[in-house]
Specification:
The structure holds 2 protein chains of 2 kinds. Chain A is mainly beta. Chain A has no helices and 11 strands. In chain B, the strands form 2 sheets. In chain B, strands 2, 4, 5, 6, 9, 10 and 11 form a 7-stranded mixed β-sheet that branches. Chain B is globular. The chains are: A mainly beta, B mainly beta.
Chain lengths: 113, 114
């Protein structure tokens, strides 16, 4: 099955700096890569996603890049704010896999004032 | 429009007891899922239901059973709870199983087995 690795497990940045979280996946058949944000004690919520036919996608301060050849994708957050502090999960879904997501282990992002 | 609603929110069980986690969605979604979340391990799929009347195993199905009661409801049952099943359980739904259908999560159920 699919295996998704996520790094780093914790990330601390100063407010206004950029944050980058990286994930690698094992199955070249994966073609959908969402990112979820989970605040403490809350549900995971989708913040951005990308499909394998796209190399980059941006939504305001958040962007995701995908390198199919290397089988890795990254989340970029610019101009970080305290409310960006949360756990971020990457995930991958296989073609024909029934929309079943395989998640990374999460990155605890802390934005310090 | 409540989205995905799951009950109970908190539960403490003794080893060997049974219980059912209930989940309902009001988004007219076809597909529903149960995930568990453990520290340092992300979310792992227990079972899913691609459509009403079908259920399939996910990554960690052992010790669990599910029932897709109707289009709205998808329950998760622990027949004989074990301490290893202490976790946070999330029900989720999506409009379908086609690639890219956004998965929406419920608020979670915190289960402790002692």
């Amino acid at each position: 099955g699919e295996n998704v690795e996520q790094h780093p497990s914790t990330l601390s940045v100063q407010e206004g700096d950029s944050a980058v979280i990286k994930c690698t996946y094992s199955d070249s058949a994966s073609n959908y890569f969402p990112w979820y944000k989970q605040e403490l004690g809350k549900r995971p919520q989708l913040i951005i996603d990308i499909r394998s036919n796209v190399g980059e996608k941006k939504d305001q301060r958040i962007a995701v890049t995908l390198n199919k050849t290397a089988k890795h994708f990254s989340l970029h957050i610019t101009e970080t704010q305290p409310e960006d502090s949360a756990v971020y999960f990457c995930a991958a879904s296989l073609t024909g896999g029934g929309n079943k997501l395989t998640f990374g282990t999460g990155t605890q992002l802390k934005v310090e004032l | 429009n409540a989205g995905v609603t799951q009950t109970p929110k908190f539960q403490v069980l003794k080893t060997g007891q049974s219980m059912t986690l209930q989940c309902a969605q009001d988004m007219n979604h076809n597909s529903m899922y149960w995930y568990r979340q453990d520290p340092g391990m992300g979310l792992r799929l227990i079972y899913y239901s691609a459509s009403e009347g079908t259920t399939d195993k996910g990554e960690v199905p052992n010790g669990y059973n599910v029932s897709r009661l109707n289009k709205r409801e998808f329950s998760l049952r622990l027949e004989s709870a074990a301490p290893s099943q202490t976790s946070v359980y999330f029900c989720a739904s999506s409009s379908g199983t086609g690639i890219g259908n956004t998965i929406y999560f419920g608020e979670g159920s915190w289960l402790t087995v002692v």
